[in-house]
């Protein structure tokens, strides 16, 4: 594959590669890093790549780089249970529980289901994977996106409250 062919194909595939990485990682910056790593790998292998295989190969490498990034991330407890208060049954008059529940209810369906299974039903990740049919990587990404959304919503709520 010539340098010109490589540049042409990468520029054409760039938006799709970015979307693929972002769908796995849930973060545009991390997705961009995964795409850049994939392009470097492809560049190093350009002499052996056939143009008709470029799209499939580049998507495979981006997916692998994205999953590698997920695996490298240190698991954290991104939300203080005190903020969520979902692990105990709360009285309806408890403002914190109602706030947490309202924020969780605003999550996309899969994220909401995963959070509720984990914190209200006390299910392990393995149990959630079986119940939803998600892979461990997909569940991790789903929970990470949910935690990020909840952190941002809690931060915004606290700022609004002064």
Task: Write a structural description.
By secondary structure, the protein is an all-alpha fold. It has two domains: 3-72, RNA polymerase sigma factor, region 2, helix turn helix motif (Rna Polymerase Sigma Factor, Chain: A); 81-161, Orthogonal Bundle (Arc Repressor Mutant, subunit A). It has helices at residues 3-25, 28-44, 54-72, 81-84, 95-105, 109-119, 125-132, 136-161. The termini are far apart.
Q: Which outline best applies?
A: elongated
CATH architecture of the largest domain: Orthogonal Bundle
CATH class of the largest domain: Mainly Alpha
User: In angstroms, what separates the terminal alpha carbons?
Assistant: 59 Å
If you average the pLDDT, what whole number results?
80
Number of domains: 2
β-sheet strand percentage:
under 5%
Question: Pairing-aware structural class of the strands and helices?
Answer: mainly alpha
**Rg (CA only):** 20 Å
Helix content: over 70%
**DSSP helix count?**
8
Question: Looking at this structure, what is the CATH superfamily of the largest domain?
Answer: Winged helix-like DNA-binding domain superfamily/Winged helix DNA-binding domain
Q: What sequence of helices (H) and strands (E) makes up the elements?
A: HHHHHHHH
Please summarize the sheet with the most strands.
Answer: none
Low-confidence stretches: 85-93
Secondary structure elements and their pairing?
Blueprint: H1 3-25, H2 28-44, H3 54-72, H4 81-84, H5 95-105, H6 109-119, H7 125-132, H8 136-161
Helix pairs in contact: 1-2, 1-3, 2-3, 6-8
